[in-house]
Structure to design on (239 residues):
């Protein structure tokens, strides 16, 4: 069993790796669902983290229908990840009708080769999960991150189980969203998935000694819960 942790900044990625995560999905902007990290973050993460790190290639939050210019950004970000020596990237592109953008997904997968390519939870917005599965396999991706087309993977476990069965080892199906130590073992056992994904997130308070009260701001950030990661690993070991 493999545990991937989504980390939304460099420090979280380092903490997750040190807590025993097998792989890191590196993002920024947790409240946008994850966007591509800065060059500085990408550069330092590769230098400081020994476990495989897969940066997300997502130029903005919102939907997964991208302009030509946004696709060019994704192209250049994948080139950068290859130059920096990353082991994989995470992408996801849809057409306006909810089908997978097979043409451009395949182009990005070909560009990324020999890196692993995960198709992220854009999959959960696809109009037909089974057709999307086949399309993503055909594009050359190696993994699909999914919550079973509902917000929480445990609630989507029936579709995830079916996806694992239909995929039949042609692509890895990785459940994610709402995955925690209290459900990860059951979810893995029920679905037959061999890789699991979690953010294990918790809020981190600001270290500022002074905050301007007139600004009425909440300056907390997102980090990972190291003990929760260890508990998930233990649960998977016992599953």
């Amino acid at each position: 069993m493999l545990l991937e942790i989504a980390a939304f900044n460099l420090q979280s990625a380092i903490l997750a790796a040190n807590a025993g995560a097998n792989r890191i999905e590196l993002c920024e902007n947790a409240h946008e669902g994850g966007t591509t990290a800065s060059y500085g973050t990408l550069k330092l993460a590769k230098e400081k983290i020994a476990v495989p790190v897969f940066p997300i290639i997502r130029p903005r939050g919102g939907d997964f229908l991208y302009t030509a210019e946004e696709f060019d950004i994704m192209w250049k970000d994948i080139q950068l990840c290859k130059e920096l020596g990353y082991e994989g990237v995470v992408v996801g592109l849809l057409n306006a009708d909810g089908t997978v953008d097979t043409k451009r997904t395949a182009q990005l997968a070909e560009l990324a080769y020999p890196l692993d390519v995960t198709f992220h939870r854009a999959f959960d917005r696809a109009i037909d999960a089974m057709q999307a599965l086949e399309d993503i396999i055909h594009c050359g991706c190696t993994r699909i991150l999914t919550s079973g087309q509902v917000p929480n993977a445990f609630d989507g476990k029936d579709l995830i189980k079916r996806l694992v069965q239909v995929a039949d080892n042609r692509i890895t199906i990785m459940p994610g969203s709402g995955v925690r130590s209290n459900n990860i073992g059951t979810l893995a056992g029920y679905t037959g998935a061999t890789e699991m994904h979690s953010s294990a997130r918790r809020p981190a308070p600001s270290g500022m000694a002074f905050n301007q009260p007139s600004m009425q701001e909440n300056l907390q950030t997102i980090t990972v819960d190291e003990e929760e990661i260890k508990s998930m690993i233990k649960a998977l070991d016992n599953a």
